[in-house]
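Technical annex B. To support the medicinal chemistry partners, we prepared a structural model of the target in complex with AFP, based solely on the information shown next.
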Amino acid sequence: MKRLNSQLQADGCPLELILLIRTLLAACKEISFRVSQGALAGVLGSTLSENVQGETQKKLDVISNRIILDTLRESGYVKAISSEEEEKVVGCNPEGKYLVSFDPLDGSSNTEINSLIGTIFSISHAPQWMDADDPAAFLQPGSQQVAAGYVLYGPSTMLAMTTGRGTHLYTLDKTHGGFLVTQANIQVPQDTAEFAINSSNQRHWQEPMQRYVADLLAGTEGPRGKDYNMRWVAAMVGDIHRVLCRGGIFAYPFDKRNPKTPGKLRLLYEANPMAFLMEQAGGLASTGNGRIMEIMPQEIHQRVPVILGSKNEVEACLEYYK
Ligand code: AFP
């Protein structure tokens, strides 16, 4: 099986980007170990603090954020970092070539139940003329990403990553600590009979999403003419991994409760990286009103509605918004 380096070289990645990715993955390997220790290492449970999102931080949120921050800051490759767990941008090396946005531990509410969690990351070029701690540097559309992916801390530790030349799946071989290519150029099935959405929010969705999901639930007797299955991991990394591997549609749609935060998921370090992976695997990634990767961000913790997955199913969903 091909090792990470040779896949990245085959995809034409510049050396410094390869070194940055390897550095980031070294941090994720440490998180994988800490997560696997669970209760044995006293890392479960919540802290007494809240993050900028108003969410209570889990101990593992804080630990994972610290591991990635320290590792990237010391690397010298990174000009600045934006993290779900950091209110402001963290300036690193003013001469660094890259910006990194990340959710250090997505799905952290799953830590207490030993369910799927992961790290999501997005890498883009750092504008050299901006100060290292200038948040404006991060306000680039997702189409500007040079690399994106997630590390899934599951029964095996897996990496899904793209650098713009396809989406590849890697598995961590813990006997030597290397990520090996286990599926190159994964292609999301264009059709599906499986959807992922938190249906408890149904009354807060916009009417097109309410009608779309109602028609899925109507099954063979309804306008879609087939029965659908539903899955919900409550960790985007877990749901997206399933969609990449066997197709599906994942949605965290516009929520009428608070029009100022039109969705739950954050653009820079959740929606954009997942959209890049999905499009590189032949899927689609939309807000319902347009392509996620064309959004010009207004602020680093901006939230957007997310509808992504199997091309034909996302297109069918978007028909309801017309
Ligand atoms: P946490 O990291 O707070 O667990 O949130 C995970 C997440 O941002 C995303 O990974 C899930 O898809 C989504 O929230 C689940 O949201 P609900 O808990 O509202 O279903």
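Notes passed to the chemistry partners:
The helical segments are 4-10, 15-37, 59-75, 207-217, 236-246, 267-280, 311-319.
The chain has two domains: 4-183, 194-319.
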